[in-house]
Amino acid sequence: MSKVINLEEAGYSLLEGRLYNHDYLWFSSTEIAKVSSTWPVIHNYALSYSLAQYSHGLSRGNYPHYEEDLASMPLYTTPAICSSVTRIAITLNAMDDLTLRTDAGGKINTPNLGKRVVVNPYFELLREGRRLEGGYNFFCFVRGGYRPPSVTRLGKKGCPVRIYWRRIESPLAFFREEAVVPVHPINPLDISGEVLSYEPIILPPHMLFRRAEICRDWFVNADGRMVLLPKRVRESLSIPDLEPRRQG
Predict the structure, then answer these.
(1) 218 has which bridge partners?
(2) pTM value?
(3) What letter does residue 224 receive in the DSSP assignment?
(4) What's the helix, strand, coil split of the chain in %, to 5?
(5) What's the pLDDT at 65?
(6) What is the pLDDT averaged over residues 65-91?
(7) pLDDT value at position 246?
(8) Tell me, what's the pLDDT at 115?
């Protein structure tokens, strides 16, 4: 089995993205009682849908079809996180899903108040001329000649976001036996190897790892920073399994 994968020869390019929300960013990371909170972590499924400009699809049933949708997209991203955002709580008149009323019911017209904790707008900050700081940092594996948009919408209310891209030149993926800590958050479904330790983030549609120590997996060295090669991307390259199958 080859220990090196040339991603460009396999039809993929690797981009580093830095995302800034130009309006209040809201999605329900947690929802307790009437308080919906947004965490400064963006799931890579949400990022992939937005950057692939996959706004809607026709499907049967009452549940998402992530596997089918993601397989048809020309890109796949890592999760994104930002440690320097601020948040604000907005009080709203909540609507009852069953009655479509905005009051608490009964004879007294009492508002049914709820709260939405959202991420404040975050604009670009330039240092030393053209070097960007802050924002949500992530990596994007792009198939073929697709060009991800630099402006898109994200979240429940379609918050406008701006992404600045930087291409990683000549990306090579290496198989590492030893433990590696990627520079970005991890979707556990993207791991092919063995997880030695992790710090969980409970975020729909499923848990992410804020930090993970992984061995026996594929990684890309992006200017000295280790990026996990997602299992989904690796399998699309028809790379052999990490462990040889036992006979009998």
Answers:
(1) 175
(2) 0.86
(3) T
(4) 10, 40, 50
(5) 86
(6) 92
(7) 40
(8) 87
Count of Cβ atoms closer than 10 Å to residue 108 Cβ:
7
Peptide bond into 148 cis (omega under 30): no
User: What does the pLDDT look like over 108-123, one tens digit per residue?
Assistant: 666 667 888 999 999 8
Q: What is the CA radius of gyration of the chain?
A: 21
Q: How far apart are CA 73 and CA 54, in angstroms?
A: 8
DSSP 99-167: T--SB--SSS--B-EEEEEEEPP---EEETTTEEESSEEEEEEEETT----SEEEETTTTEEEEEEEEE
CB 177 within 8 A of CB 216: yes
Percent of the chain with pLDDT over 90: 60
Question: For position 2, what pLDDT does the model report?
Answer: 59
* Count of CB atoms situated within 10 Å of the CB of 113: 12
For residue 160, the cross-strand partners are: 153
Q: Is 91 helix (H, G, I), strand (E, B) or coil?
A: strand
Give the number of other CB atoms < 10 A from CB of residue 3. Answer: 10
CA–CA gap between residue 242 and residue 3 (Å, rounded): 10
